[in-house]
Specification:
Elements lengths: L2 H9 L2 H16 L3 E5 H9 L6 E6 L3 H11 L2 E6 L4 E5 L5 E6 L1 E4 L8 E4 L2 H6 L9 E3 L8 E2 L4 H7 L1 E2 L6 H4 L3 H12 L2 E2 L1 H12 L8 H12 L4 H10 L17 H13 L10 H10 L4 H11 L3 H8 L1 H12 L7 H9 L3 H10 L3 H19 L3 H8 L8 H14 L33
Parallel strand pairs: 2-5, 10-11
Antiparallel strand pairs: 1-2, 1-8, 3-4, 4-5, 6-7, 8-9
Helix pairs in contact: 8-11, 11-12, 13-15, 16-18, 17-19, 17-21, 18-19, 20-21
The structure holds adenosine-5'-triphosphate (ATP) and magnesium ion.
């Protein structure tokens, strides 16, 4: 196995790696060359958490997509008929982009491009930024081969965002929004030449060529950013937020709202069983300070699809039942609060933590996030095994684990005393004890 294939497996969640294997096999069967590309490669090589898994295929992936939908339960979330690219969600929750390797020619800035099929090398050279223009072959003869025609790896190392060409931002001005989003997310610098390209594009007011459809695509992507509020602040500072809606400025920006939601999200411990849909919550906070008329104007201008809008408008009514349960006197044990919240949709939990006027509801949610969930994560199978006398492979073990967790939460079962740490060997006098090297901060 090549180093990169190994890196892939160790960097991805098992569900994501399973999709790589699935798509690789399906493409091989269909006789198509397939490459892992885009954000997946950037994030893997840069050591960032991987979001969606992007593939590029030489030739049209239309049949492959159909097959993944029919045989593997993938749901099509979005389709770009012009570029022949699809966004899919697999039953495991993994989101994946599959697109045709292509070349796009722009007659004018912001014009609809002429698209034709191309090789992976040509495709990569026509992408937005060098760090997004790296691919990994998944094909039998060259599996694990890295393709990096614009030295994206060098820019990842230098932590710089650089366009792949001198007209990148002119051709498709929506790339300026992608650039600021990426810069905010990764904390990279924009290279001086790319910065001057950006300034020239702004000077020519080409941002006005960004279509409402592209704007909404960006807005949706913002919802999934780790810090949407920071991005909104950046866009406001750059004078780009008015593109989305002239009404969102000043106090209506709701930066405190975004900050509050961010703090709540950060309470969710890493590795906890917690899933939330970001879009509805994000749209709610984004439009919270707008009047009904302003909100309707924004929805109409961006053409927000009904289903997406419903994620916001239904949040309040959908959370009412959970709120009622959470304030009930019957929920008088930690284990009951834990069980209620473990199965509740994450976006409802965060919405209530953000909005509910009930003190008890707020307190119970915060306890769940900051005490119960972290406590449960620390419980090892070994500990459960010592308590119940069953091996983790035993079919009765999962139920015992649940019983143990609930018992621990309610204090019926005590936390076991920590294993004694062996005494360090005595050192001969005069020798320095070696200091452990400082842990490297994650990039
Ligand atoms: P994320 O982690 O947010 O998914 P991403 O870079 O993967 O980031 P996608 O929108 O999934 O972003 O796009 C996948 C890849 O397609 C990008 O990495 C980039 O190479 C290319 N791409 C997307 N949009 C454009 C664009 N407007 N112009 C050129 N290339 C683009
Ligand atoms: Mg992506």
């Amino acid at each position: 196995m090549s180093d990169y294939m190994f890196m892939l497996e160790s960097h991805m969640r098992p569900q994501q790696f399973a999709i790589v294997q699935l798509v690789q096999a399906a493409a091989e069967q269909a006789g198509l060359n397939v490459y892992l590309s885009g954000g997946a490669m950037r994030d893997m090589l840069g050591g960032f958490p991987l979001q969606d898994v992007d593939f590029t295929v030489e030739g049209s992936p239309a049949k492959l997509v159909k097959q993944l939908a029919a045989k593997n339960g993938a749901v099509v979330l979005a389709e770009d008929a012009l570029r022949k690219s699809w966004e899919l969600r697999f039953p495991s929750g993994v989101v994946s982009g599959i697109g045709m390797a292509h070349e796009a020619r722009y007659a004018r800035p912001g014009a609809k491009p002429q698209v034709k099929p191309a090789t992976i090398h040509e495709d990569l050279r026509g992408r937005d930024f060098t760090i997004n223009a790296i691919a990994l072959s998944l094909n039998r003869a060259s599996r694990g081969l890295l393709i990096d025609p614009t030295n994206g790896q060098g820019d990842l190392e230098a932590r710089e965002i650089r366009t792949t060409g001198n007209y990148t931002l002119y051709d498709d001005p929506s790339r300026i929004l992608r650039m600021l989003r990426l810069k905010t997310r990764l904390g990279f610098e924009v290279s001086p030449r790319t910065q001057s390209q950006y300034e020239n594009v702004r000077e020519a007011k080409l941002e006005l060529k960004i279509t409402p459809e592209q704007l909404y695509h960006e807005l949706r992507a913002m919802a999934d950013e780790p810090n949407p509020g920071l991005l909104i602040e950046t866009l406001e500072r750059e004078g780009l937020l008015t593109l989305f809606a002239p009404s969102i400025t000043g106090a209506k920006l709701n930066l405190p709202g975004h900050e509050k939601l961010l703090k709540l999200r950060q309470m969710v411990p890493f590795g906890a069983e917690f899933h939330s849909e970001n879009l509805g919550l994000f749209l709610f906070v984004l439009t919270e300070k707008l009047s009904a008329k302003e909100r309707a104007g924004l929805v109409k201008f961006l053409g927000i699809p009904k289903a997406d809008l419903a994620t916001m408008t239904k949040l309040d009514a959908a959370s009412k039942k959970l709120e009622a349960t959470l304030k009930s006197a019957k929920l008088n044990r930690a284990s009951l609060v834990y069980q209620t919240l473990l199965t509740a949709p994450g976006e409802q939990i965060l919405y209530l933590a953000y909005k509910s006027a009930q003190r008890l509801v707020q307190d119970r949610i915060k306890k769940h996030l900051t005490q119960y969930l972290p406590g449960v994560i620390e419980i090892t199978d070994q500990e459960v095994s010592n308590w119940c006398g069953l091996a983790p492979e035993d079919e009765k073990f999962p139920q015992k684990r649940k019983d143990y967790i609930l018992g621990r939460l309610d204090g019926r079962i005590r936390k076991p005393a920590p294993e004694p740490v062996p005494e360090p060997e005595p050192q001969p006098p005069g020798r320095m004890l070696r200091q452990p090297s400082a842990a490297r901060a994650p990039r």
